[in-house]
Design goal:
By secondary structure, the protein is α+β, with helices and mostly antiparallel strands. Helices cover about 35% and strands about 30% of the residues. It is built from 14 helices and 26 strands. Bound molecules: zinc ion.
Length: about 475
């Protein structure tokens, strides 16, 4: 029996974006719910997408001189409580181990919400001299933050991420590393995932607990909401002082080093879904797609099947040597017994960039029909030349996807000058609102309380422009980016 109506079973993206998102995650078998509330099981299709961005980011991390290390899952309570702002920021979300080995523990152990506290304690033995600096480390691990409202990939109680932790002799050295982290995230987002980002500084209220300042990249999703796609923090000497890390500098004076930390998580799988997906499901950037091409044979008779199979065998012999921007071409021939129509929906839902349909008439003319997932354009493609063409076709697709996302963001970014205009625009259109702000946390809070929008970043690239704060009319030096966010 032909299975049809598969795609119609996902919620309408324009009517019910959260429902659409959940349907896509579950029906593409990227992830599923677990027996533990708020935790997720990442299934092979979702894990392959995570591995792709993880591996690309790991290349950036290593290329810039950082080394991978591992620290324990548990953080003793006394360590977590050393840096006052840090513990205050994380305490409500920490899961504690109170019993082990059949006994109550004399000191509770936090399941790491992040590793700054334990790292600072340990590296104080490693950092004795300026010669030990900079210390450039990165961890790939899982962390736990007990979230009340969870969503697959976007906000889960346990998630996978990397956390870089670096120590430097000077503030300038640390600042340079904050920028290195942010640039790695920009590159993975834009160049690998085709998601354009706005780079900037977080307001004080949105700064990482215990940091001097935080830089971030923000991306627009298809429902015009913002998603923070990576953060890089200047920790200053805060954690070094709390843990009493000191080194002997070139001038023979003992000093506290400056620290940074930066993180990028499985949220970015959710961002990839929401930045590109459409009413038929996922639309994946070729660099991160588990399959870049699916070949669908079309036949009715056994004789046709034999002819189509021979043509496909000849084609795949040439495809096996193809190298794309993200490694060897990843393709699949779908010989399953479903109907061609079912297969089209199945692979469209999964966001495979190209589909090649090959039937008996195509075989006779030495070509197939190549369909682009993003815009469903169809064109005849000669089979003999396809292997040679595919790397460029995939690169063009990757570029087109980025441009589409950039155009969408630009079309949904609005400059507003008054609070009335701000509220009306947010209500009618949503999107990114570029508005003047005096820098006062009270004005920021009022806007958030009354509209639900937050300051996403104070963008690096927005020009100086004198204006008046939306709330109290005090001077603003430049526009900041407000949006409702994930
Ligand atoms: Zn103000």
């Amino acid at each position: 029996m032909a299975k049809t109506g598969f795609v119609s079973s996902i919620a309408d993206q324009s009517e019910d974006f959260p429902g659409w998102y959940n349907d896509v995650v579950l029906k593409t078998e990227m992830a599923s719910y677990s027996p533990v509330r708020g935790c997720m099981i990442i299934r092979p299709y979702g894990y392959a997408i995570w591995e792709s961005m993880r591996d690309e980011l790991d290349r950036h991390i290593k290329r810039t001189g950082h080394q991978n290390v591992y620290f324990p899952l548990f953080v003793p309570r006394s360590l977590l409580e050393k840096e006052a702002e840090h513990v205050e920021g994380f305490n409500p979300q920490v899961a504690w181990v109170t019993h082990a080995g059949g006994e109550e523990l004399s000191e509770w152990l936090a399941i790491r919400p992040t590793s700054e506290a334990i790292i600072a304690e340990v590296v104080k033995d490693w950092i004795q001299s300026y010669r030990d600096l900079p210390l450039l480390m990165n961890l790939w691990n899982n962390v736990v933050r007990w979230e009340l409202r969870t969503r697959l990939f976007l906000r889960t109680a346990e998630f996978l991420w990397q956390e870089a932790h670096t120590f430097h002799a000077t503030e300038a050295g640390a600042a340079e590393n904050v920028a290195i982290g942010l640039e790695a995230y920009r590159s993975v987002s834009e160049d690998w995932l085709a998601i354009p980002v706005v780079r900037g500084r977080k307001s004080r209220a949105e700064t990482f607990p215990g940091a001097d300042y935080s830089h971030a990249i923000e991306a627009m999703m298809r429902d015009k909401r913002a998603l923070q796609a990576g953060t890089s923090h200047m920790l200053g000497q805060n954690f070094a002082k709390a843990a009493d890390i000191q080194f002997l500098d070139v001038d023979n004076v003992r000093k506290h080093p400056y620290g940074t930390s930066w993180g990028f998580s499985t949220r970015m799988v959710g961002a990839t879904i929401m930045a590109h997906g459409d009413e038929s499901g996922l639309v994946l950037p070729p660099n991160a797609a588990p399959k870049q091409l699916v070949i669908v044979p079309i036949f009715r008779t056994e004789e046709d099947r034999t002819a189509v199979a021979a043509a496909i065998d000849a084609l795949t012999a040439t495809l096996d040597g193809v190298t794309t921007a993200s490694g060897p071409l990843r393709y699949q021939v779908d010989w399953s017994d479903a109907s061609p129509g079912f297969k089209y929906s199945h692979w469209e839902l999964r966001g495979v960039p190209f589909r090649l349909e090959i039937g008996p008439r195509d075989v006779a003319s030495g070509q197939g029909v190549l369909v682009r997932r993003v815009d469903r354009t169809k064109e005849p493609a000669p089979l003999a030349g396809l292997a040679a063409e595919l790397p460029k076709r995939l690169a063009d697709y990757q570029k087109a996807l980025f441009q589409r996302a950039l155009d969408f963001r630009e079309a949904n970014t609005h400059s507003v000058d008054t609070y009335d205009d701000f509220k009306a625009t947010l209500e009618a259109d949503g999107g990114f609102l570029m508005a003047p702000w005096c820098g006062d946390a009270a004005c920021e809070k009022q806007i958030n309380d009354e509209t639900g929008a937050t300051i996403r970043v104070i963008p690096f690239d927005s020009p100086d422009e004198a204006g008046k704060c939306l709330i109290d009319g005090r001077p603003s030096e430049r526009r900041v980016l407000f949006a409702k966010a994930y």
